[in-house]
Predict the 3D structure of the following.
Amino acid sequence: MSDDKFTFNFDLPEKSHIQPHILSPDAVINFRCYKGISCYNACCKMADITLTPYDVIRLKTRTGKTSTEFLKDHTVPFTMDADGVPGVKLRTTDAGACLFMDEEIGCTVYTDRPTACRYYPLGNMAMKHAESKHEQQHFVLIKEDHCKGHDEPRPIKILDYRAEQNIEEYDGHNKEYFQLILKKKSAGPAIGKPALMSLQLFFMACFDPDRFRGFVLSDAFKKSYDLEASVYEKVAADDIALMYLGFRLLRQVLFAEVTLKEHEGAYQKRLDERKEVYELRHQAEVARVRANDPYQAYKAEVEAEDADKDKDKK
């Protein structure tokens, strides 16, 4: 049986030339970055940084903005796979420089910098054997022509470098997110393409916690999910607790795992409500098609009627 592999893809500048070397946590690398090195800020001028949910929480708090404001001002969306699973990257200048980079002082959000920035010049690769319950961590050393940090005489173990860069805290909070991505990737056709509403929920739960909080604290959510009052009190004030609740909800929505207890009859009620929404969307689509091609509109209506008749026969 072959191994399942998944790379935590901490993005590199688009035009980078990578010389990959797979390393264990105990491996020694030679690297140092500091103000005054000849390539200072070079990597920040070619930024292509994918953010994790925890990165967004740290950065939106650092900037004093709501998550919705932070996303608008500092990120751009992209799709992570063919099914349209959404992600976000840091916004850059037209020349590709990170908006948080200052020529004199370097990174202006250094203590809250994203996971990918902390890892550099390493890439994190988790490898899971089919017979194992846990991933094994391996690392890729990234050498780019512009980076002179590799020429500095400072040998350091990867595990010590991770501690120095406070990577373990970030990895701890990123783990469940990457497990979601891994499960989606490995399941493939087994779960099919998520519905549009599921993809929208994914984006909100992962990257827009302030908006997600309003959703979780709404009467509609509370009528669906049977959670203790203490849970709602916790997520009302704690972004990290809210993030983990979002991961649980997504496992239930995307993979049908029972992670949140539902009120009796809540599932059927949601199906009925969604049926009405789908019908309204269908009518809007028919109207749009009719405006451009009456025959296609007629055909769509006939197909919808036939589908309803088939349902009634079953």
Summary: The mean pLDDT is 84. The beta strands are 4-8, 22-23, 28-30, 75-79, 86-90, 101-102, 106-107, 122-128, 136-141, 155-157. The radius of gyration is 23 Å. The first strand starts at residue 4 and ends at 8.
